[in-house]
Design goal:
Elements (H helix, E strand, L loop, with lengths): L11 H11 L4 E3 L6 H6 L6 H5 L1 E2 L2 E2 L1 H9 L13 H13 L5 H14 L10 H12 L6 H7 L2 E5 L2 E2 L5 H9 L4 E3 L2 E2 L11 H12 L6 H17 L4 E7 L8 H12 L6 H22 L2 E6 L1 E2 L4 H6 L8 E2 L5 H14 L5 E6 L5 H9 L9 E3 L9 H14 L19 H19 L7 H20 L8
Parallel strand pairs: 1-4, 4-6, 5-7, 8-9, 9-12, 12-13
Antiparallel strand pairs: 2-3, 10-11
Helix pairs in contact: 1-18, 1-19, 10-11, 11-13, 16-17, 17-18
Amino acid sequence: MFMDEDYLLDTEWAKKLFHGYAESQPIIDYHCHLDPAQILEDRRFKNITQVWLNDNGAGDHYKWRLMRANGVPEELVSGDGDDWEKFLAYAKTIERAPGNPLFEWSHLELKRVFGIGLTISENNAPEIWKRANERIAEKDFSPRGLIRRFNVRCLCTTDDITSDLAAHKRIADEIEDFRVLPTFRPDSLWNIASDSFIQSLSAVSKLAGIRVTGVDGFEAALAERADAFHKVGCRLADLGMNNFYYTPVTREEIEDILGRRLAGKTISKMDVQAYQTYLTLVLMGLCHSHGWTLQLHMNCMRNDSTRGLKLIGCDSGFDSVGNQSDIVLNVKQLLDMAQRTDKLPKLLLYSLNPTDWLALASLAGSFEGECVQRIHFGCAWWFNDTFTGITNQLTTYAEQSLLSNFVGMLTDSRSFLSYPRHEYFRRILCRVLGQWVEEGRLPEDETYLSDVVKDISYRNAHDYFGFFAKNDR
């Protein structure tokens, strides 16, 4: 039966593990792009289009890519077209998307959020629109209501280093039953050659109250910002490396590079790579000293379409899988230097290109020690967040390390409706474990297997990141 209660669960053990243990676990969404201001305001939505597809130009670019591929005009994708027409265009698009994870995610969201079991189609669109909007009009349908509905104990937003964290500070004072924590992200300082670098550094300097004229001031300002994030509950940092070329640099050399850039002078490609190596090592040191986990997201091509970037902006569906073939070698040199200088933090290593996965998972094992699973091979991220991608990531992790230590899934989403993606992951996890039991690769031991499922679904993330006391599960 289509998307029934045993969807994706192809063995009796898979059904037993999911329904008995995984399904009921709380959620820790340790990497998402939700807007903390919307949680603070607990804002209301007018209709399903606004919460699902497009909210005043912001929306789910996973869905936008498919709509463009189906010939939908941009005014009904990211533009200011009629909300009903946008929803209808998406319904028509999903009809054309068998096998795409959005086909399954959208139906899961429709069932779990709105209680609607209809197939998404042009014919059913009017009824779905009516029933969904009736649900949206109910009192408990809001960001906070949805977070509570899915038993989310903690979610971590992605916050630029220039954020004043005002929303997070107020949320901490006003909300007691779940946590909304910031993630320290210095991406706006990543490309030292960009036009926006000086502006971002000026904002950091102002917030930190530290004049930045060289390396000492630069590091002091970053450290002050990290302290400010930590006080609001931050326990994670994140860096979108995209491409990375490890380039050793002395302090005198980086002083010169930074000084020339602050003076408005031209810097070379090698200078940029040296600065990025330096910045990453500074970030690793900050994470190590604060006890944070650093997430390194790599091998992504951003803003492929110049036209799309100019017309619509970044994070709008114009990114793709990167192809830097030697990126793991460069990351290896980075980790080695951090370890030699006693600045190696806990790490999650993600690559958007699955050809890196075996190399990355095995690399993690070379730098373990001193704590349980210091380095995780990160979950199936973005374009790999699919049935095949999740299955392959779990298998690679298991074959190269200790799967029972894995910290599980994240939404990486800008939508408050995306929590069923945790269910999607947990169903695939139970499917994989159930198959291994059927094949005689795991014992038929419910006590043992249920602990594995609960650990990966929730408990490992709870303990590893330090959002809560260990006895506060």
